[in-house]
Amino acid sequence: MITVTSVEAQNRFGQLLDTVQREPVTVTRHGRTAAFIVSPQDMEELTIARGKRSKAVAEFEAWSQRAALSALPAAADLTDEEVVHMVKAPR
């Protein structure tokens, strides 16, 4: 990934559009990352990954709520160490 300043990005914008077809470009301002320029293909992949992550989080939250409803009251008293021991014990 190449890095350019915001001034360089302004002066070489057309060239950067060609460059991002091969690799993303980091744009900095005052020494800090200000933006990334990516190809449409990379953006599509990022969007798909974000959607999958959101779906996975929603599914995990739904599972967690179902598990909480079906858990025995004693489960709330278990420590993290006890849970880890119970998971590892059968192995």
Provide the descriptors you would attach to this structure in a database record:
91 residues; alpha+beta; YefM-like fold; three-stranded mixed beta sheet; 4 helices; 3 strands; 58% helix; elongated
Task: Write a structural description.
With 91 residues, this protein is α+β, with helices and mostly antiparallel strands. It folds into two domains: 37 residues, YefM-like fold (3-Layer(aba) Sandwich), CATH 3.40.1620; 47 residues. It is 58% helix and 16% strand. Strands 1-2-3 form a three-stranded mixed beta sheet. It starts with a strand and ends with a helix.
Spatial arrangement of strands, main beta sheet: 1-2-3
Mean pLDDT: 95
Low-confidence segments? none
Which of globular, elongated, flat, extended, rod-shaped describes the shape? elongated
- How many extended strands? 3
Tell me the strand percentage band.
Answer: 15-25%
Helix content: 55-70%
Q: Compute the number of helices.
A: 4
Main β-sheet, in a few words? 3 strands, mixed
